[in-house]
Amino acid sequence: MSVTRARPAMIVCIGVYAVLALVGATTHRSWMSLVAMLALLTALLLPALVARRAYAFVAWPVLALALVALASSGWLGVLMDALPAVINGAIAWFFGRTLMRGRQPLIAYFIATIEGRDRLELPGVARYARWLTAFWAVLLAVQASLLALVFCFAVPGGLLVALGIESSIRLGGSFYMAYAHIGCYLVIAAAFILEYPVRRLILRGVPHSDPVAMAAQIALRWPDLLRNWHRGGP
Questions:
Q1: What φ, ψ does residue 171 adopt, rounded to 5°?
Q2: Cα separations (Å) of 6 from 36, 186, 199?
Q3: Which among 67, 85, 60, 62 has a CA at the least distance from the CA of 31?
Q4: How many CB atoms lie within 10 A of CB 76?
Q5: What is the mean pLDDT of the chain?
Q6: Which of 228, 194, 196, 227 is nearest to 213 (CA)?
Q7: H or E stretch at 39
Q8: Model confidence over 38-68: pLDDT tens digits?
Q9: How far is the CA of 102 from the CAs of 97, 158, 222, 233, 234, in angstroms?
Q10: Binning pLDDT at 50, 70 and 90, where does residue 89 land?
Q11: Distance between CA atoms of 17 and 43, rounded to whole angstroms?
């Protein structure tokens, strides 16, 4: 199986993770959380496994055993609840570091790679790409901070509760579960949808590509995009 043909399997694994992570968190069934994490681990390592990278064949069983150990000790649920904050923070950092001097903003890199460098030379496109990269970095950083705050002080299910530490700050655990596993992704989806009319308003004299098609291209080609990025991208 080629890396390209493995992408549908990766999408399925991510879908399994999303569903079982939510159900496992709300029903407190540890086996669902374990299967969800194994699905996520498989999705992350699948390109390397398909490419027959030696490290992937070592990493998968080692990390899978670590997840089983966490599930047995009762800490897997805590790890899963921390993941949304970690994921949002990591992506925010990824966007933000491309705004450093001498680098190409990540959105500009996507545009140049998928639609061609000529599009970046259209009036206002390069500047808007930088602004949009900054917007996503800030939005995801704010979400990561909020998720981390609620995760620490959520009752029940928060980190301090798991550690047996009493705190005067007590935030609703049910709110955290809903926001962490559904709400934060709805915020991202809403921002993505609203960006299109804003873009059309700001860049009125520029032809606009279909945002759904653009997102699909990024989703389908993200392993290649990341590989090229590490070889000299932004």
A1: -110, 150
A2: 19, 27, 34
A3: 67
A4: 22
A5: 81
A6: 196
A7: helix 30-50
A8: 998 898 888 888 878 888 899 999 999 999 9
A9: 11, 41, 23, 11, 8
A10: very high
A11: 9
